[in-house]
Amino acid sequence: MTEDDRIRPRLVLATTLLPDGDAGEAALKAAIGAGDVASVLIDPAGRQPGPFQDFAERLVPLIQEAGAAAIVAEDTRCAGRVRADGFHDASGSVPALREAVGRLSPRLIVGGSGFTTRHDALEAGECMPDYMFFGKLGADSAAEPLRRNLELAEWWASIVEIPCIVQGGADLATLASAIETRAEFIALSSAVFADLGAAAAQVEAANRMIDRAMEEAAA
Q1: What residues make up the domain containing 55?
Q2: What is the CATH number of the domain that holds 134?
Q3: Where are the alpha helices (DSSP H) in 12-146?
Q4: Total domain count for the chain?
Q5: Rounded to an integer, what distance in angstroms lies between the CA atom of residue 130 and that of residue 179?
Q6: Residues 151-202: tens digit of each pLDDT
Q7: What residues are paired with 13 via a beta bridge?
Q8: Are 124 and 115 in contact (CB under 8 A)?
């Protein structure tokens, strides 16, 4: 890939840190209204199936009304019941991902994560998911992205047509390392939602950084 055909990465937000109720919903609404957000991964984050469905049911319309895709993680029944746009399999199991793709695609977007080697990632890619996620929901507490995730995303983006999401770090100052992988999407959670009141400003800042990086690459 040359600089001329470089794709601008888009943000994916993960709800891991969002609390139930009005405060969490307000923060998410502000965040996805503050700049380009492609999709939102709705993370159970330890919730039991009933409370998680209630949580997702309130978020899905909010996400969709903003023009983003609502993707429910881990619970296929919940994804169907709340009319989500997609399902994310975080098991790291090729058979589980294959089963999800076979059962849900193309009605739903289906992606997977938990594949931590090139061999496993390629095997998962043979299932033809809509995207691969290099990272782990809830594992972005460090300021910098995990080096392994960056390396896998950069390698994947250079040779595989299936889009990938790379997990960013908790500090937006490190966003450049995720941008440089040339992954099509960058997932942020702690960097946006650690301070609910700053969620919109963080999304604005992230998009400015992406735009600046693209301008510099094209110069």
Answers
A1: 3-218
A2: 3.20.20.70
A3: 22-32, 49-65, 76-81, 94-104, 118-125
A4: 1
A5: 20
A6: 999 999 999 999 999 999 999 999 999 999 999 999 999 999 999 999 999 9
A7: 40, 188
A8: yes
> What SS3 class is residue 173?
helix
**Cis link prior to 61 (omega < 30° from 0)?**
no
Q: What angle do CA 94, 81, 89 make, to 5 degrees?
A: 15
Convert the pLDDT of each residue in 43-68 to its tens digit: 999 999 999 999 999 999 999 999 99
Q: Are 62 and 24 in contact (CB under 8 A)?
A: no
Task: Tell whether the model's pLDDT for residue 1 goes beyond 80.
Answer: no
Q: How big is the chain by its Cα radius of gyration, in Å?
A: 16
**Element containing residue 12 per DSSP (H, E):** strand 10-14
Contact indicator for 108, 77 with CB cutoff of 8 Å? no
Nearest to 88 by CA among 38, 143, 136: 136
| Packing angle of the helix pair 118-125, 94-104 (nearest 10 deg) | 20
